[in-house]
Design brief:
1 helix; 88 residues; alpha+beta; 6-stranded antiparallel β-sheet; 16% helix
Length: 88
């Protein structure tokens, strides 16, 4: 049986507007998540994520245009403190 990727929470801070919190299981590790999002930021690519729903409820998908993002915080769900994670 294949092992499921860990869940990561990402918070995108746009040039204008409120931060957007999303989640993803598309990455095998924190390093691969950081590398992928960093590349998207550098190239201005659009990424697709699941929106964070309340109490684990599915709440849809979000497309993030990385050319309009000034900062991103990537945090594994297993992180314990509010300051755990990595800003890009």
């Amino acid at each position: 049986m294949a092992q499921e990727n860990p869940e990561f929470h990402l918070v995108f801070h746009p040039v204008v507007g409120e931060p957007l919190a999303v989640r993803s299981r598309d990455y095998e590790s924190l390093e691969s998540a950081v590398d992928s999002v960093t590349m998207a930021l550098e190239q201005g690519n659009t990424l697709r994520f699941e929106l964070n729903g309340r109490d684990g409820a599915d709440s849809g998908a979000a497309l993030v245009n990385c050319s309009n993002v000034v900062a991103v915080k990537v945090r594994p769900v297993s992180a314990t403190g509010a300051d755990d994670g990595q800003y890009l």
